[in-house]
Amino acid sequence: MNVATLIFWPVVAVTLAGAAGAAFARNLVYAALSLGASLVGMAGLYFFLQAEYVAVIQMIVYVGGILILILFGVMFSRDILGTSTEPSIGSRILGGLASLATLAAMGRIAWNIAGTESLGLRAQRIPTADWVGQISSTSASHLGDLLMGPWLAPFLVVAVLLTVVLVAALGLVRKDAQ
Amino acid sequence: MIDLVLAGPDRLAPYLLLAAALFSLGVFACVTRRNAVGYLMGIELMLNAANLNMVAYGRFRTELLAGHAQVATLFVIALAAAEAAVALALVYAIFRNIRDVDLDKIRSLNGE
Lengths: 178, 112
Description:
The complex is a heterodimer.
Chain A: H1 3-24, H2 28-48, H3 52-74, H4 89-118, H5 140-148, H6 152-172
Chain B: H1 2-7, H2 13-32, H3 36-59, H4 63-98
């Protein structure tokens, strides 16, 4: 067991505990802050996956942007403490069944992969940059090449979409919208 | 099982198991939450689980795929941000009409 493993499992625990808090906490503020812990843990996992650029974007967009939006949205709730909006027993059973079915389906695939990995059929590990200055295949500059190359059309579509979303969001909250 | 724990970040399976757990927690939140913002949190959890799956698969496959998987993840993050912005604008529009964001009480957008 090396240092990376010792750091890895606490990060996984934080991510999982945060997600559980976001799903189960009755107090919406606690749920939003738990979601924040989960998102930060996810950024840590991206570092383990050598996706440094994605990790940084995750911190900026998710933790810095979406989480703030959600915390802002929580203030619109009449019942932030969640006392009078308890989910009904029926929806709890339905939610439990749906989530367990999803967990079983996705977990089975992961378990099979764990089995093949234990047999020595390890997935290939991507070589990292060995010395300073060497550019790895997932560096920010390489991702930029991909964005300007094969992903150019989706990139432009997303740019248009973000403009439309900005205008649409402003239109929805306009004072004289009625 | 033990060597899975010992190998930690060098194996694909822990990421997939974690993503499965996150996705199912997101499904649970989406079904049980009556508050619109709580529902949004469930959606974000599911999107994050999908992102983690994509980056993990890319990282443990060929060198060519890793970059593409990360670019696809960046697109998902951008779309999630756009979706959160529109969702919050909708929540605000509904709140202005019925003074509440309880999904069980929302019947229309014009407050009648």
